[in-house]
## 1
Amino acid sequence: MKSINLKIEENLLLTPAQTMETVLEAIKEVIPYELAVILSKEENDHLKVRYASGPLKSEKLMQFEIELNKRPDISAALKAGEVRLIEDTDEPDHHDTYEGVLDLPLGHSCMLAPLKVNDETLGLMTLDHRECDIFTSQRVKITETLSQIVALALAQSLATDKLLDINEALVYERNNIIGEDNEVFAGMIGRSKKWLQVVERIKLVAPTGSHVMILGETGTGKELTANAVHRLSQRATAPFIALNCSALNSSLAESELFGHEKGAFTGAFSARKGRFELANNGTLFLDEIGDLPLDIQPKLLRAIQEGTFERVGGEKIISSDVRIICATHVNLEERVAQGKFREDLYYRLNVFPIVLPPLRERIEDIGLLASFFLERISKKFGNRHFYLSDTAMKMLNAHEWNGNIRELQNTLERAAIMSKSGLIRHEFILFESEYSGKNSVSATGDITAPGSAAGVEIGKFDDEMKQVIKLALAKCGGKIYGNNGAAALLGLKPTTLQSKMKKLGIK
């Protein structure tokens, strides 16, 4: 048999369409055909055209289906499970395979090759040529061998299509849950009872103008929630201004909140509006309010109560009508008891609390969230389509998600970097918890304890982590720091990434 040379790049994973195209082109090197067609056996007892190759291929052909109850000749070929030549015959049940679609000359050559895996008939491969008797007995024998390879490729294709159908169903369900507020709640995905309660509370408080306190762990979507409240409010056309209070010292916090006049302090070369002034008639979102310096809290309380303030270094009273939405991941009642947060400010802000559940308490939302993030990652990576294998999905559902939604997003982006075909397999799902020795998931989808033979081996994980870091560095042009750096892409602190690079020998 003439050798079949498939030029496939090392480690390249082909899509189902690319795989079938490559296989059909390879078959042409040993079996001359003018039309090769792969049909899958559907639940309605039809054969559906999936892939085709050759000069006789047409758009009409790609829409063609064969009703097996009307084609006893093809049904018999499938049942026999052997390659058959279908040429001139006087049998009353005989028809051209693609009658009504292709007008082939009398006496043309046609070969039917059933596609079976483990005694299950998956479909049929047909080879046609306008020349008579071109399919010799030797070529029939070769086709019997090749049909086994094609059957395996078709099985992979059907499995992948099933995953894509599941993904599309998740997208549809996600959009259906969000409903008419699709644009407002973009990114706020979920069907769990706890998450739907959050959405209802957002809709309840948004039109009122009351101050809102958003409580939740880091990475649960506090700023998205604040933005949704704003966009559903009567202030939606006015500014939404955000300020992260974390790591602000007293002087910087006051300047950021209320602005400053020219010459108010060293480096104040011009007057600058603060967030209160910028948010006039709109919403001011104060993230990590629990970290606001204690000596600034009375000034914030006064601004909220009276709607007035002065810039740093100024004497002019400035009025601003602002709705306050604040968020924190700490227990403010404990901070009040410890004397680290003013009680009067706490009660002024905590008019209507919204508690965001951690991702580990809304496991049923992970599939929808993964679908949403993979859709966004697809656009970021040049519209490449990404989808999860069953085992990869099991790994996501089994993980603790201490970093919540942000960790999920970063995990999926790391996996997408490693996937060349778009299929995200279980070995591409890399968690920090695996590196630290916590429970992991084996290749079969079973949860395993540290040290288990089926668990993730540390050496293997190091190799995979090394590959991920190298890919991230290449994508970011070797840059580590900044929003466009490899550390941000991997969801790590730059110093943590540098430490891992040193440990893994990455220069």
## 2
Amino acid sequence: MDQNSKDTGDSQLEENQKVILGIWDNSKKFLNDLLDIREDSDRNETIESVRKDISFQGHNAWILIFSIFVASLGLNVGSTAVVIGAMLISPLMGPIVGMGLGVAINDDRMLRRSLINLGVMVSLSLLAATLYFTLTPISEFTPELEARTAPNVLDVLVAIFGGLALIVAKTKKGTISNAIAGVAIATALMPPLCTAGYGISEGNLAYFSGAMYLFSINTVFIGLSTYVVCKLLKFPMVKYANQKKRKRISAIATIVGIIVLAPSIYLFYQLYRVQVEKSAINEFMDEYVQYEGVRSTSEYDPKTKKLDVVLFGAPVPDLIIQQWKKKLESYPALSQVTSQFYQGSSAPNLDGNYENIASMQEERIGDIKRLQDQGLQITALQMELAAIKSENRRFESISEEAHLLYPELKTISYAPNVSKSFNNNTMDTVDVFTVTYNDSLMKPLERLTVNSRLKNWLKYRIKSDSVMVQTAQATASGI
């Protein structure tokens, strides 16, 4: 019995293992069919296609020039749609993909042609962009241009994934539009080239060098993406009749690859680290640097790891600032960052934050104006309240005097009555006094007499002829 149970259990276990292995094999086959591009890649055709696209002559040169003009126009007016339109027609990818492929297959001739044509491409682009920004009447430094004066990790990621998308598209058998695949490349290359042209036209070395630095980084990573894909797909190496030449070319390609790869990895890490630090600083500023009546702006220098924070408005106590500094130190990404808070006239000259400071000053002026308006409203309400209190005190005095003169009075109330005459279109205010008497059996004639005497006294007392005295039961006397 026990033996049969054991055999049944082993049999069930084997069946479960077979089911699991079947699921695993099917999953592997599905993923392989879904993601494997080796069988559907035409390596020889890809090499010939890349070789044809390297040269910048004739039509390609003019298309590049016109696309640079369009992209410069888009950056100049801050229109993303126009820049994207320029990317659709830009032939930038040829020499850069050629460099990556040339290194991957040890083709020194392709590598030389790619480098030469890359120089031609950069020269034509800079010339066209400089010409546009020199002639255009709009010389404003837009946010679109400013964003291309310094590299960040997002630009590098665009270059990497754009390069991967392009080379994978080019290796596929059949046809995939180069214009569509090249949009990702143009995204990383065209705006920096146009911005560099803007820097030349304005004579601003910082703009030019920053934009060219960004362009160079993106170029390297696009070429690197091409190199990696071609190696993974095992593109055929160029064969040389001379064995020594083959080894020499292979060694040169390896050295070039290492020279490009090592700094690229380090640079990517540095950009990533700076991006993480800036994100942490933005979170810190939004979450902790908050104080009633205070606005702030900051500038961070990644090289010195120093954060300068300028506070505008009401003075912030030192105890609060010390608490902010402790919160800053609690961020793992900002453990090596030193901070300095400035208030009022102690604020330094923070380059690059003029617009933020000007904006905050405008907001501060607006706040002051609103506070002034609120102050005027409060003053007016206080004056109105004081007038009401004064009127109440005057009525209290008058009512006491009236009671002394007319002991038969039980209550007296007062309210101004505003009326308008449509015959002569005039406004008039009547001081209406309503009275009641202790003696409810007082005859109407007596009430009229007392009301008349009270009315005459009130006219004299409040220095007004527009007085009405009436009893609570019925109107007894008019003006």
## 3
Amino acid sequence: MSRIYEDVIKEINSRLELVDIVSETVQLTRKGNRYWGLCPFHQEKTASFSVTPERNMFYCFGCHAGGDMISYIMKRENMEFREAVEYLANRAGVTVQQETPAVRRKRDRAMGVLAANKAAAQFYNQLLLSAKGKKALKYLQERHLSPAIVEKFSLGYAPDSWNTIEDYLFKKAFSQEQVKSTGLIKRSDHQQNRYYDLFRDRIIFPIHDQRGEVVGFGGRVLDGSLPKYLNTPETELFSKRKNLYGLYQARQAMRNLNQALVVEGYMDCLKLHQAGIENTVATLGTALTQDQARLLRRFVEEVVLLFDGDDAGQREALRAIEVLHAEGLKIWVVSLPGGKDPDEYLELYGKEEFLQYIQNSKVDYIEFKLNRYINSEVELNLEKRIRIISAVQKDIASLESELAKDYYTRMLSRRLQIEENLVRRELNKNGTGSPMLNKSGIFRDNTRYGKSSLEERLLVSMLKNPLIFEEIQRTVGLNIFRNSEYRQLIRSFADLASQKDYCWEDLGSIARQKGFESAYARIMFLMEEEEELKLIEVQGIIRRIQMRRKQLRWHKLQERLHQMSEDADFDQLLRFILDVDSFINSTHKGVTS
């Protein structure tokens, strides 16, 4: 497949949701981390067709159709690969162009910058843990951040020097253009073609995208100087509007809980993770954006906003509500007392009381807006009461449940001291409009579809655990799977794993090209549900495989003996005796080892 198509497909996946595309023809219901519906590719009465939004993949446990967004459109629309890519590119507003030398250079440049970012993050982390980072490490310890959190988030330190990161990356053979493109150096205003480090004497927070790639950095001063926080500028790879701090580290907990806790700052995010509240992400110094809301919707159907308790934080919460509501997410808001931020509250009262406060004090977004509007008014005259009703009119109209609508009508009546029938009449003014249907949740459970075989559990374990993969490869090799597609999958994975940088999307592309995308889709689903085998179980499987191979070899030797005629020549007899001797020796080793 042309690399230009790989880039186009990545862009399509960042802009389109497979759930939305499938929903055009299939009624989907969310269960846990997936959506389920009747398969569009075969007749069935019980839903066995599943879509995983995080991976943009589908799989049917009935007819075993599966794959990614491209595979789905190819099958649904009866299209060839190129037609499906162009069809989706058109929908996503992505231009498909031939891979010109300029396009190839752009892709190579991006890969070079990612490598430079990764090297920089590792270097900053090494500096933090060295003698040069003693002051910064002490600061983090005073903020009660543990070594485990420092390691989990790859925190670092940029020393008070003008050219530390520039010199280091040059020594690592990165070009000046690549280093400039990281955003870690700035051009001098006084000397032409001279650059200096953006971060000096700051704690460094590497920012990872959802695939774990370092795409940007944040830095915090150690003293009271301004600006307190600084991010790398917008680059080809990094946009504050399209990323969330901590998403890569939080993604599994978010999926498991079907909920994301959104805070405003790096330290808030780190402290909550340290307290075991690992479904926490942070905005990057901007108001929550539509891109960030879409990113959240890939993982969860419920968001809790935990912004600072001061007036600015509450205003940001109001803005975030509108953005999240447009994406069909269920929204809760927690307002901390005394204008505190989450880090401060956690320090004062501890994890248990913090979690209890969230549970007892969270309100849904309509009640939060109502509280905010009422509390901002010194005196509630009739005009202001009507304005407040109008402000939540669309929110109440968008509710699917008549019971919920009635609940908020009565709440408005009570809080605004207006007769209920008058509130209802005001809410129904100018029509209520069509409800905004939630794009996600119906209910949540841990339903599992499709019983996995021992062969599949072994394959999942090999993909999850490098030690198991290496043990199988060393002892019995990779040709142990009866399913030919699984053999192709593990061989392709072995080829990828030998490369320096790879990701699951790369394996998915190979699966589509070689025609085993359904097997790949099934194994990706099972990877989320199946626990990996214990090493003792794997060793038991290896012994059974070895025993079966010895039995087959013995049977072949017996067949050769029966086929040999009485007048077999000396060479034939000698080869046979040597093969028997080899077999006996290998069996003896297997018994004694």
